[in-house]
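Extended Data, record Alpha/beta hydrolase fold-3 domain-containing protein
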Amino acid sequence: MGLVEEKEVTTELLPFLRVHNDGTVERLYNPEFAPPSLAETNGDMLSKDIIISPEFSARLYLPSKTTNKLPILVYFHGGGFCIESAFSILSHQYINTIASQANALVISVDYRLARQTRGV
């Protein structure tokens, strides 16, 4: 039997991900998801999840106590296509604050992350 080459870590972005010398990527950070706020909650905001296409979904944030036309802000979460989600707890809290303070309808778009690869 041949020797199995030990995978060497070439890059670590702790606590988020690790890249090995064979090109495999380990995603170390898996955020918890927050449910949409169907009732008035933080800052009197309502939120609802929608499906845009098979590849994209979004969470809508709407101030509940407005009868006027609102500006629309489209928000794409950071994370370099490797980590996070529009539905994670931190994103949810952050967008609730933005939508409330800006008195705007916010569409927080979720997208497919880069594929996590693991060696055999």
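Summary. Residues 31-110 form one domain.
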